[in-house]
Amino acid sequence: MEEIQSHSDNYRSSSSSASSPASRVPSSNFFYLRKPGSLRQPISFEDSPEWEDTDVEVRVDEGGDSINIATTPASPSLSKLNSGSLPSPPLPEGAVVARKIAGASVVWKDLTVTIKGKRKYSDKVVKSSNGYALPGTMTVIMGPAKSGKSTLLRAIAGRLHHSAKMYGEVFVNGAKSHMPYGSYGFVERETTLIGSLTVREYLYYSALLQLPGFFCQKKSVVEDAIIAMSLSDYANKLIGGHCYMKGLPRGERRRISIARELVMRPHILFIDEPLYHLDSVSALLMMVTLKKLASMGCTLIFTICQSSTEVFGLFDRICLLSNGNTLFFGETLACLQHFSNAGFPCPIMQSPSDHFLRAINTDFDRIIAMCKNWQDDNGDFSSVNMDTAVAIRTLEATYKSSADAAAVETMILRLTDKEGPLLKTKGKASTATRVAVLTWRSLLIMSRDWKYYWLRLILNMVLTLCIGTVFSSLGHSLSSVVTRVAAIFVFVSFTALLSIAGVPTLLKEIKIYASEESNQHSGVLVFLMGQLLSSIPFLFLISISSSLVFYFLIGLRDEFSLLMYFVLNFFMCLLVNEGLMLVVVSLWRDVFWSILTVASIQVVMMLSAGYFRVRSALPRPVWMYPISYIAFHTYSIQGLLENEYLGTSFAVGQVRTISGFQALGSAYEISTDSSSKWENLLVLFLMAVGYRILVFVLVYFLVRKNKSILSIFRCNQDSRSAR
């Protein structure tokens, strides 16, 4: 204690005398200070809801797309703004006001989170945290990096990975119950948006994926979300821009990701770092918007690293963490008094959040060590001459014995003493509806994304024209057989290789699915069905346009049935290749490695396809078994050659004739069975189905594994910091 007291006195003496609340009457211009005479008062209980005075009735209309709320008059303090906060900007006359939201109280008691080490659950990321959040208020979990903020937020929301273990209790409206689907929203730190859609379209399709009922019933919900997040001016603008037009800024994109969760009208909204990568102006606009959302009745809980003075004034309550320890929980204004009581008063001209993080961020110790022998114009670096480890211990000890900690415990007892209304699920859209929505949305994206779809179509046409002109005017003589085989091989192999241009698009679709699946907006089967159905028209357009150009430039047999088989065979080849790329993209989740892997696989398959060396002459280990049998080039080329040469004959001299099978000779091995080409087509179909099944397994496990790895990585960072 003597060490703590000496460091505390040292810091108090190093600060300006004017910065101490005891030595100067706070100016009214600094809204984050309480009035004189009230500095030592604990937080008030007047914000606590009384269930006997508030009867919340949540009724879902037929179709489940809207919520009607009937409430008896409750304490007006439930939705009031912090008396010291900046007011939200007034709405203009005639503006549409979004509907009220029925919030819910959230309480966490003795919450401890541990992660699994090599042998057992040992590393504590969050240690015995207590706190609560009330309807109509903003509760912020603040602390330096790796302090356990995101882990605590996920623990309260019930979104911890199975490798993390939670101890303690979480109450919602006074009851220990799991929050059902639709009753809460969770916004990740980084959300993948669809740049080819406008803001209104993106939110509309999100509503169709989440809510049951008819399409037309979702429009009002989407408009409410747009108004709530102040996106009216951007509603009809593309998120990612178009051609030379820039996309929306980071602030608007962040508000779109929050609006996506608002279409469900959740009672509780969890946001991980709402100010992530935002400048000061965008951050203030974001917090004013969230303050307006809280005033509608929603319960907001979010994490934050640091904020400006203006943003800090908008918070209702703050949970201050460092190394997993709770250093303070209560009203934001009381936090300043808590630091002053512990011997670390906030200087008048310094932001409160900067001061808090300066005191509890252990990374500053390295700066102190680095600056020990340096001097500035005023002498040594006395302003950073505080041991953060001592400060953390002092603040923690002061808080545990303070009236604020006792007030929090009393409030938790009051909130958990009587159960309030239980949150109910709002239903989900049917699987068929989700498949239809994803299919239509993907088709719309394809029609607008010229870079990866229309450009790919143009490249295929250009490549086909090049191949067709190089191998044009072959004729139907016996001498043209080998050259015709080469033309078909080049056409199938090079067009399949050119499909690598679609890898970035497939990777983007996987990321969008992962973002939507995390909040149960989509599923693996729904995603794969929608992706397949939407890709079929595009692949068929490529196959029929390329096949027609190649077929007639080369001069293949002039029969309609043979032409249709050629188109169908090439279409199945593209479909199999698309499935192969999906498998690789699902494994790597990286553009560079995915393109490199697909190109390598394509080259290996081309080598074993039977053109450079007939299959029977290939080395049996590896090249013949299994590569030549899993290469789709083999079955596509063999089927096309059987389609062209079976049933034909070539004159040798004036007397003798040979069949098309014999004419191929050593150029390529085909079957003499007339139904063999259909067997090859069936094999291609089964390979397409097999690749999709493999993608289903990979996406189902690997996407969840990647999310788990990210969650574990953050927990490990928090645990290392805690140690």
Automatic annotation (TrEMBL):
<feature type="transmembrane region" description="Helical">
    <location>
        <begin position="486"/>
        <end position="507"/>
    </location>
</feature>
<dbReference type="InterPro" id="IPR027417">
    <property type="entry name" value="P-loop_NTPase"/>
</dbReference>
<feature type="transmembrane region" description="Helical">
    <location>
        <begin position="453"/>
        <end position="474"/>
    </location>
</feature>
<keyword id="KW-0812">Transmembrane</keyword>
<dbReference type="GO" id="GO:0005524">
    <property type="term" value="F:ATP binding"/>
</dbReference>
<feature type="transmembrane region" description="Helical">
    <location>
        <begin position="527"/>
        <end position="554"/>
    </location>
</feature>
<dbReference type="GO" id="GO:0140359">
    <property type="term" value="F:ABC-type transporter activity"/>
</dbReference>
<feature type="region of interest" description="Disordered">
    <location>
        <begin position="66"/>
        <end position="88"/>
    </location>
</feature>
<dbReference type="GO" id="GO:0016020">
    <property type="term" value="C:membrane"/>
</dbReference>
<feature type="transmembrane region" description="Helical">
    <location>
        <begin position="622"/>
        <end position="641"/>
    </location>
</feature>
<keyword id="KW-0067">ATP-binding</keyword>
<feature type="transmembrane region" description="Helical">
    <location>
        <begin position="681"/>
        <end position="703"/>
    </location>
</feature>
<dbReference type="GO" id="GO:0016887">
    <property type="term" value="F:ATP hydrolysis activity"/>
</dbReference>
<feature type="transmembrane region" description="Helical">
    <location>
        <begin position="566"/>
        <end position="585"/>
    </location>
</feature>
<keyword id="KW-1133">Transmembrane helix</keyword>
<feature type="domain" description="ABC transporter">
    <location>
        <begin position="106"/>
        <end position="348"/>
    </location>
</feature>
<keyword id="KW-0547">Nucleotide-binding</keyword>
<feature type="compositionally biased region" description="Low complexity">
    <location>
        <begin position="12"/>
        <end position="26"/>
    </location>
</feature>
<feature type="compositionally biased region" description="Basic and acidic residues">
    <location>
        <begin position="1"/>
        <end position="10"/>
    </location>
</feature>
<keyword id="KW-0813">Transport</keyword>
<dbReference type="Pfam" id="PF00005">
    <property type="entry name" value="ABC_tran"/>
</dbReference>
<dbReference type="Pfam" id="PF01061">
    <property type="entry name" value="ABC2_membrane"/>
</dbReference>
<feature type="region of interest" description="Disordered">
    <location>
        <begin position="1"/>
        <end position="26"/>
    </location>
</feature>
<keyword id="KW-0472">Membrane</keyword>
<feature type="transmembrane region" description="Helical">
    <location>
        <begin position="591"/>
        <end position="610"/>
    </location>
</feature>
<dbReference type="InterPro" id="IPR003439">
    <property type="entry name" value="ABC_transporter-like_ATP-bd"/>
</dbReference>
<feature type="compositionally biased region" description="Low complexity">
    <location>
        <begin position="75"/>
        <end position="86"/>
    </location>
</feature>
<dbReference type="InterPro" id="IPR052215">
    <property type="entry name" value="Plant_ABCG"/>
</dbReference>
<protein>
    <submittedName>
        <fullName>ABC transporter G family member 3</fullName>
    </submittedName>
</protein>
<dbReference type="InterPro" id="IPR003593">
    <property type="entry name" value="AAA+_ATPase"/>
</dbReference>
<dbReference type="InterPro" id="IPR013525">
    <property type="entry name" value="ABC2_TM"/>
</dbReference>
<comment type="similarity">
    <text>Belongs to the ABC transporter superfamily. ABCG family. Eye pigment precursor importer (TC 3.A.1.204) subfamily.</text>
</comment>
